[in-house]
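Record 1 of the preview.
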Amino acid sequence: MKRLIAAVLGVMFSVGLGGMAVAGSLDSPGAPSGGSMMYTLQNLYDYLVSGSALTVQGSFQEPASAPGSTMKTTKQIGDAIKVLFEQCDVTVNDVALNKKFFCTQSGSWGVQTGRVCIAGTPTPTPTITPTPTLTPTYTPTPWGPTPCAAKSGWWGQNGLTGYGCWFVGNLGESCTTVCGNNGSLICDASMRWNDYGDCRICKHWYSGAGCQETDGPPESPDYYVDGTVCRVDSMQPIVAQDCAATNIHTRRFCVCVGM
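->
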């Protein structure tokens, strides 16, 4: 009988202690230590799938509510990453030398270094077509405003190529004749002869004349008497003077040089 009473008391004592342990507080004795916060599964999913930044709270905070249905599971994360990685097919033989990349190919998983030496694209060499030049048929002597004025010429800017000694001829005269009649000068047949688009050379002599664009007859620039207009081919600002050209309706403007 005494043994039975002792056994019953022992069981009661054990049950009492167990009840005290279960009834204790389950709260943490303090906040988690610094740096112990973790990324959420949603945060990891967004980072791996779309590159969103990984973030953790600066200090521990109790969640306002239990995790909702939007939290990703490890299966969802794994499946999403697998779909993305299986699209990658680049190997070290496809990437420029010493460039780092992440390889997802079997047997080469992880950060790899490219091995391909890619040469720069060569710069094409432009093709330059030389401009043909005309060889003068004379050997000019030093020429300028003073000897030009001594021959009754006008020292004026010659199109876009410098200055020349200009003379105006009579109707139907060639520049060879015009230059020869002015102190036995020579018609300048080099590529430095034309008027401007505003006919300023012609208007030195015929200031009241009109200015007309022409299609470049060999006697241009000239003063077209029938229409009392100066004519110039401004589309070809630097052309060779045609020393022999004539026109019974025009007075030619000629560049002459000394012998």
